[in-house]
Amino acid sequence: MKPRPVFAAPGVRFVDTHTHSTYSHDGKSSLAEMRAAMSARGVDFAVTDHFDTELAWDGDRFSPILRAAEEAERLNRTPGAHIYHGVEIGEAIWNDTAADRILSLCRHDVVIGSIHSVRYPGWMQPFSLIDFRNFPAEKLDGYLSQYFTDLAETAETADYDILAHLTVPYRYLIGKFGLAVSPERFLPEISAILDTVIRRGKALEVNTSCLGSAYDVLMPDERILRLYREKGGRRLTIGSDAHLAENAAHAFESAKNVLLSIGFSELTYYENRRPIAYPIA
Length: 281
Ligand SMILES: [Zn+2]
Ligand SMILES: [Zn+2]
Fold this sequence. Notes:
Strand order of the largest sheet: 1-2-3-4-5-6-7
Number of helices: 8
Shape: globular
CATH architecture: Alpha-Beta Barrel
Bound molecules: zinc ion
Radius of gyration: 18 Å
Oligomer: single chain
Distance between the termini: 27 Å
CATH topology: TIM Barrel
């Protein structure tokens, strides 16, 4: 299917603030391919390749981020979607030295803070690699509790602009393994994380990567987005988390409709790590 342009508002371009290229270990499309797809959709974007601190010295994880930034600036000299460049720092709280070093490596437009691995004894590999079907209920609860503890610490102490894909383990627990996870269970922890994001003036990400999948919701879901707004949270970014060009700006129109129904009227992107708001109505 030929990609259709999507707009935030008449004459206003979306900025997809969370994407990956082959500078990420799991990226499937080159930055040039991603840009061509974004250009076809009329969307500007940030390339935010992975830097998980626990892998910082497992091979060279620094150079790819620098090369992505350099290529973005090179591509920006030719017509097409504008590319902002940054990094998605996973597990910043595991290794301050690595996080500081990637932050000072080059100029970043945007820094994403996220958790892909949890400090749960014996299960510290990325949750995308864990078979949760063998976890008894109590262990699953302990694991999730540790995810929210780690994310709360990240939200509070890390240097980032956007807190990404809040509740992402649900994608695996619910979407991949069909496990029953009560959406109420960690609401107090989630609420406290939202408070931190608001108090520190950070942005919450609306991650669209699960829309249309077995876990067919925004991350975080509508109820949490509503809570964020009720608490006074206004700074929101939209990210497809695309690892493949065909997922560029995935489901932005339906996400926008949800945001409008909650009462949000703006989205934010970052340039030189400064937030810039734009209308979605
Ligand atoms: Zn991520
Ligand atoms: Zn990502």
